[in-house]
Amino acid sequence: LLTSQRLRSAARAIGVFDSGIGGLTVLRALRAELPLERFVYLGDTARLPYGTKSHATIQRYAVQAAQALMTRDIKCLVVACNTASAVALEQLQQHFAPVPVLGVVGPGAAAGAHASRSGSIAVIATESTVQGGAYQAAILRERLDARVIAKACPLFVALAEEGWISGAVVSAAAHRYLDPLFVDGPTADRPDTLVLGCTHFPVLAEVIRDVVGSDVAIVDSAMTTAKSLRAELERADLAVGSICVRPRVQFLATDGRERFARVGSVFLGELIAISDVDLVDLR
Ligand code: DGL
Predict the structure, then answer these.
(1) Of 9, 138, 171, 242, whose CA is between 20 and 30 Å from 262?
(2) 81 given a catalytic annotation
(3) This prediction's pTM
């Protein structure tokens, strides 16, 4: 009986939540790491962006979105949104215990701390993430000698949402944001590592690379979050293991199924059919 209960429990889906479609870059890494698992992804497209909103609002939205996933009987929640992870992770963990809730900030900070040789690390993220200081604190927890510069790059979110991931406009924005850190000023002061602390930034990585140069390590939290998720599932005895469930993804959006499918396909790196996206109301 215990075994069949465990199997049923482990066969439940993993919930993934983001303010919109950007978190599909994280889902992509989670699926690559855990190909046997089922996922249900919720993008709060009606209320995006979170990154310019107050902490109180982000916390309220995050709890509502997580609640919608909990009612779908998820076994674990991944907060793919950096802003919600930076501002609301503790509330979510307290509110939904004992369901494990993982964020992307801790894994992203760890990846940055380990990639850096000099200890000089730059983080780019949304305004709210930068203001909350969660990345800065998490990197310093990993590495006491770190010197962290955090910079808000809100326009990158809009560009990626528009599907503009290369070209002159993106390049101009990248220079405006990143030249002060990586091009101007003495070479010795420049960070040797750049943490992409926002779901939308991995799709702009090529343009960002052109600006910061080939010597800078560019890291994002997706891969390390996937590894943390695997470890957490094993710790909690919730990994699906070799059970034969049909691995699949269910998509939920709070607005704009067509847009979710179209733009989301760029972030996920594979085609999403409109018919696979269901609308959900969080109020
Ligand atoms: N998902 C957000 C993040 O990773 C970016 C988009 C937003 O501001 O809502 O910070």
Answers:
(1) 171
(2) yes
(3) 0.94
Structure tokens at 205: 């990585």
26 lines ligand 1 (CB under 6 A): no
Q: What is the pLDDT of residues 177-206, one digit of tens each?
A: 999 999 998 888 899 999 999 999 999 999
Burial class (CB in 10 A: 0-12, 13-18, 19+), 206: exposed
Q: Is the CB of 134 under 6 A from ligand 1?
A: no
pLDDT at residue 124, as a whole number: 98
E strand or H helix at 268, and its extent?
helix 257-268
Give me the amino acid identity at 277: V
Of the candidates 168, 162, 170, the one whose C-alpha atom is nearest the C-alpha of residue 266 is 162
Residue 66 has pLDDT above 70, yes or no: yes
What does the DSSP 8-state code read for residue 166?
A: S
Nearest in space to 197 (alpha carbons), one of 171, 169, 177, 175: 177
Residue 10 CA, ligand 1 centroid: distance in Å: 29
Average pLDDT of span 219-242: 90
